[in-house]
From TrEMBL:
Keyword Thylakoid appears in the UniProt entry: no
Keywords attached to this entry: Membrane, Transmembrane, Transmembrane helix
Localisation: Membrane
Rhodopsin domain mapped to chain residues: 42-282
Name this protein carries in UniProt: Rhodopsin domain-containing protein
Predominant cellular place of this UniProt entry's protein: membrane
Sequence segments annotated as region (Disordered): 381-401
InterPro entries listed in its UniProt record: Rhodopsin_dom_fungi, SAT4-like
Origin: domain of life: Eukaryota
Spans through the membrane: 25-46, 58-76, 96-115, 136-164, 184-206, 218-241, 253-276
Family: Belongs to the SAT4 family.
GO cellular component: membrane
Membrane topology value: Multi-pass membrane protein
Length: 401
């Protein structure tokens, strides 16, 4: 009779199914967690061994990886005790054990997201020197810290005492517990907003850089890849409802766990992606060289086309002179490097506030192309403001192709 009651209530409370097979739970969570951990290890290697520029952001993403592994373990334990099956298909004791592991998965999920977002924002601070942009980053960091504390604490003490989360007979109406649907929806909404804000934060700065459009678009793609996490967060939002309102929780929770694991680990991958360039540069240099030459040719072609177009406009008054101007201008552009990339590189060597001299390449381990910059010696490289670098042991730059 109790089983029939659960089935009837479940049918009334949710028309959206959150069910997925136990095999799906195992495969998705393990694969995404493993890939994220490999990306973290590659990032740590790139920063500590190749670029020798490890920072706080790397430590934060490492902590996020620990929480990601913890979430994977909680998902495995829930599945082991019956998640993916109907609530009446296993003993009451196992239901309590599943609920306990689910409680652990909630706050580990929030903790992983918080550390990942902080890692991305700290990485922005290492890369971009613009004062207004850095102020926005610090404001975002402050908000993310407060939001992460709230989400973790609210998950830990969702019920008071804590064990009421997995021992309460009627979790939906237990006065000792917070209204979980409202709390989870509010947290998810703020999570989506902060995901989008974090991903879009550097767009304005990158668009203002004086560099070829091709390279600028690639930079936007690298940093904008975090928007993928926003879409995943929205998909996850759909499956909060059937899990939160349905008494047959073990049947309707798998998809929520799957999308939580995907979101968490994809966010880690997005955070690590911009830092792995130096590995490609070290082990596959020809790949970057081919893209570099392609970008320079594109920049020269654009400049030559502009020069020819300007010369053609003069043909109305003097056709012979316009042809000469076009030829001279095109030849000059072919002989010179891309001016946009040159000015961009020089601007990167300007000192930041706080006395630290960093550039976009500090995170990537690139080296300045002195030949292209027209310098015969490394000492001839001048800062954008005319001051030569002092006290810099390693000069680096970004050439995102």
């Amino acid at each position: 009779m109790a089983e029939m009651d659960i089935e009837a209530i479940a049918a009334q409370r949710s028309t959206i199914s959150g069910h997925a097979s136990q095999t799906s739970l195992y495969v998705v969570t393990v694969i995404f967690t493993a890939v994220a951990c490999l990306a973290i290890l590659a990032r740590v290697f790139a920063r500590t061994v190749v670029a020798k520029q490890a920072g706080t952001d790397d430590g934060f993403i490492f902590i996020s990886g620990i929480f990601s592994v913890a979430f994977c373990i909680t998902t495995y334990k829930q599945t082991e005790y019956g998640m993916g099956k109907h609530a009446w298909e296993f003993p009451q004791h196992d239901k309590a054990v599943i609920a306990m592991w689910f409680w652990a998965s909630v706050w580990t999920y929030y903790a992983a997201l918080g550390f990942t977002k902080l890692s991305i924002l700290l990485q922005y601070l290492r890369i971009f020197p613009q004062i207004n942009f850095r102020r926005l980053c610090f404001a975002m960091i402050g908000f993310i810290v407060l939001w992460s504390l709230w989400t973790v604490v609210s998950a830990l003490v969702m019920c008071v005492p804590i064990h009421a989360f997995w021992t309460a007979e009627d979790f939906f109406n237990d006065p000792r517990c917070l209204p979980r649907l409202e709390v989870w929806y509010a947290n998810a909404a703020i999570n989506i907003v902060t995901d989008c804000m974090t991903a879009l934060l550097p767009v304005g700065v990158i668009n203002s850089l004086d560099m070829p459009r091709r390279q600028k678009n690639l930079l936007l793609g690298v940093f904008g890849i975090g928007l993928i996490t926003c879409f995943i967060s929205i998909l996850r939002l759909v499956y909060i409802y059937p899990m939160a309102v349905n008494p047959d929780q073990t049947w309707h929770s798998p998809l929520l766990c799957i999308w939580s694991a995907v979101e968490m680990n994809v966010a880690i991958l997005c955070s690590c992606a911009p830092t792995l360039r130096c590995l490609v540069q070290r082990f596959w240099p020809k790949f970057l060289d081919s893209l570099a030459s392609s970008g320079r040719r594109s920049a020269r072609d654009d400049s030559a086309a502009t020069a020819v177009g300007s010369a053609s406009s003069l043909s109305k008054t003097s056709s012979d002179k316009s042809v000469d101007v076009a030829r001279v201008e095109a030849a000059r552009v072919e002989e010179q490097p891309a001016v946009g990339m040159l000015s961009f590189r020089r601007s990167l060597f300007k000192p930041f506030s706080g006395g630290a001299v960093l550039s976009l390449a500090t995170c990537y381990g690139g080296k300045p192309d002195l030949e292209e910059m027209g310098a015969q010696k490394k000492d001839d490289v001048e800062l954008g403001n005319g001051i030569k670098p002092e006290g810099i042991t390693k000069t680096t730059e970004l050439e995102m192709h």
